[in-house]
Amino acid sequence: MAVQINPSILSADFSRLAEEAKAVEGADWLHVDVMDNHFVPNLTLGVPIVESLSRATDIPLDCHLMIEDADRWAPQYVEAGAGSVTFHAEAAAAPVRLAREIRAKGARASMALKPATPIEPYEDLLPELDMLLIMTVEPGFGGQSFLDIMLPKIRRTRELISKHGLELWLQVDGGVSAATIERCAEAGADVFVAGSAVYGADDPAAAVRMLRNQAQEKTATAAWACGH
């Protein structure tokens, strides 16, 4: 399974986004957190910034929508240039229809779950998705501490993916750092969003390489990967 590192621009300097995108060359995706101050208590950026970013970098954009009325807004982020769009299960009225619409427009469809939202009710939806995001902090703010209580949920999700034989990426977001990424990889994650661990480093590109190496080494010996 290929490990992917997605730096989060939520931790970047918003006045220099084009330069900050270039600072993480070598990353697999650039993670863009979209917050509306309703679904989560914070306000970040929207469609116009995503359009600008898509023109400023060759790194594909992974847009994480922490917004209400995802069914209405998510397709617009595909049109703005996102290569992957993540909507929250808690904010989607018709998640299967929405995932199919995102895919039909040419992007990867992903669904996110807040820490308190269980994976099991969504088992039958997994074939409709390209990625599932397990939040390892409460969404809304960067720089939070990793919630270790999410590790069993990551393991259960990986077991469901394996049970159905799906080529589904399993992403984690929140508190991912050199101190936590190996635990996430061992539990079953293969896509890692890292904000302050990358943009808070003296050399963001080197931080991406270090995190990738850690995750790859742990994945190589993880039970879930060895039996895949």
UniProtKB/TrEMBL annotation:
<dbReference type="GO" id="GO:0019323">
    <property type="term" value="P:pentose catabolic process"/>
</dbReference>
<feature type="binding site">
    <location>
        <begin position="173"/>
        <end position="175"/>
    </location>
    <ligand>
        <name>substrate</name>
    </ligand>
</feature>
<feature type="binding site">
    <location>
        <position position="31"/>
    </location>
    <ligand>
        <name>a divalent metal cation</name>
    </ligand>
</feature>
<comment type="similarity">
    <text>Belongs to the ribulose-phosphate 3-epimerase family.</text>
</comment>
<feature type="binding site">
    <location>
        <position position="173"/>
    </location>
    <ligand>
        <name>a divalent metal cation</name>
    </ligand>
</feature>
<keyword id="KW-0170">Cobalt</keyword>
<keyword id="KW-0119">Carbohydrate metabolism</keyword>
<feature type="active site" description="Proton donor">
    <location>
        <position position="173"/>
    </location>
</feature>
<dbReference type="GO" id="GO:0005737">
    <property type="term" value="C:cytoplasm"/>
</dbReference>
<dbReference type="GO" id="GO:0004750">
    <property type="term" value="F:D-ribulose-phosphate 3-epimerase activity"/>
</dbReference>
<feature type="active site" description="Proton acceptor">
    <location>
        <position position="33"/>
    </location>
</feature>
<dbReference type="GO" id="GO:0046872">
    <property type="term" value="F:metal ion binding"/>
</dbReference>
<feature type="binding site">
    <location>
        <position position="64"/>
    </location>
    <ligand>
        <name>substrate</name>
    </ligand>
</feature>
<feature type="binding site">
    <location>
        <position position="64"/>
    </location>
    <ligand>
        <name>a divalent metal cation</name>
    </ligand>
</feature>
<dbReference type="InterPro" id="IPR011060">
    <property type="entry name" value="RibuloseP-bd_barrel"/>
</dbReference>
<feature type="binding site">
    <location>
        <position position="8"/>
    </location>
    <ligand>
        <name>substrate</name>
    </ligand>
</feature>
<comment type="pathway">
    <text>Carbohydrate degradation.</text>
</comment>
<keyword id="KW-0413">Isomerase</keyword>
<feature type="binding site">
    <location>
        <begin position="140"/>
        <end position="143"/>
    </location>
    <ligand>
        <name>substrate</name>
    </ligand>
</feature>
<dbReference type="InterPro" id="IPR000056">
    <property type="entry name" value="Ribul_P_3_epim-like"/>
</dbReference>
<keyword id="KW-0862">Zinc</keyword>
<keyword id="KW-0464">Manganese</keyword>
<keyword id="KW-0479">Metal-binding</keyword>
<feature type="binding site">
    <location>
        <position position="175"/>
    </location>
    <ligand>
        <name>substrate</name>
    </ligand>
</feature>
<dbReference type="GO" id="GO:0006098">
    <property type="term" value="P:pentose-phosphate shunt"/>
</dbReference>
<comment type="function">
    <text>Catalyzes the reversible epimerization of D-ribulose 5-phosphate to D-xylulose 5-phosphate.</text>
</comment>
<dbReference type="Pfam" id="PF00834">
    <property type="entry name" value="Ribul_P_3_epim"/>
</dbReference>
<feature type="binding site">
    <location>
        <position position="33"/>
    </location>
    <ligand>
        <name>a divalent metal cation</name>
    </ligand>
</feature>
<feature type="binding site">
    <location>
        <begin position="195"/>
        <end position="196"/>
    </location>
    <ligand>
        <name>substrate</name>
    </ligand>
</feature>
<protein>
    <recommendedName>
        <fullName>Ribulose-phosphate 3-epimerase</fullName>
        <ecNumber>5.1.3.1</ecNumber>
    </recommendedName>
</protein>
<dbReference type="InterPro" id="IPR026019">
    <property type="entry name" value="Ribul_P_3_epim"/>
</dbReference>
<dbReference type="InterPro" id="IPR013785">
    <property type="entry name" value="Aldolase_TIM"/>
</dbReference>
